[in-house]
Predict the structure.
Amino acid sequence: MALTLIEQAKLVNDPLQAGIIEVFPQTSPILQFMPFMNVNHRSYTYNQEDTLPGIAFRDFGDDYDESTGVVNPVTEYLRIFGGHSDVDRALVKTSGDLNDIRASYDRMKAKAAALFFTKKFIKGENSTGTPDEFDGLEARLTGNQLIAAGDTAEGDALTLAKLDELIDAIVGTPDILLMNKTMRRKVNALMRAAGAAIETVNDQFGKLIPAYAGIPIGVIEEDNEGNEILAFDEDDATGDTDPTAECTSIYAVRFGEREYLSGLQAGSLDVIDHGLYSGGVAYRTTLEWLAGIALFHPKCAARLYGISKS
């Protein structure tokens, strides 16, 4: 059974591990909504739905024509990422409570890991096939799941019609729209101009967040290195590579175990307390996660690209 990280944290008995896991959905809207399936190997092979089998009426005495659906076998590789959180014991002696200081440093490491995963979910690229990282949505989405904002050099302004087209590219209804803060403001401005009320919905923590057409808007900000993830640094939709590219994208995603988009993990996030590490000068906590993503349906995610700032 696939569980979100919020649900997983409730089942963890170790307070340190539970607290660290909770930081991830608090930091990233993607990790707040996405369920994770547990797999027992470093890779996971599944069949992605392509074409449904035929269905027909028949008359009495007649038989059905055989019709089989088409699936595409896909293999995903889980990737290992994480890091160490060290606190110098001299800092503890001069600054106060050990547990408070370590908790602060561990939360910073967890926040960095969550932002790292968020960037790779969108921008990850593993073109060489090495075990460095998994492919993100930008590298995966093709064909009808790529929607151009227009055909103007240097990009086109966002319109609600194009945002509706993005939503309609998803089977059923998306669970979340992913965009930067500028695009979130643009959506609000377009809704006010159209005479519509600004929408909000409750997130998984009960906090009000912006929405469009009842779909939560997940604002994607900076990665763990302080770089904007959905920056205005993408090419326009004309197909020309522009060294001064100033466009961005909006993504729509539907989550679901073995049916739409799901996270993969080999066991939950590991949080290891080493104590005073190897008799050295620092207390160490290790965070490590063996994780990836799987797209079970060809229409579980879509991208609206070539959007300008204007």
About this structure: Residues 147-254+299-307 form one domain. The longest helix spans residues 98-123.
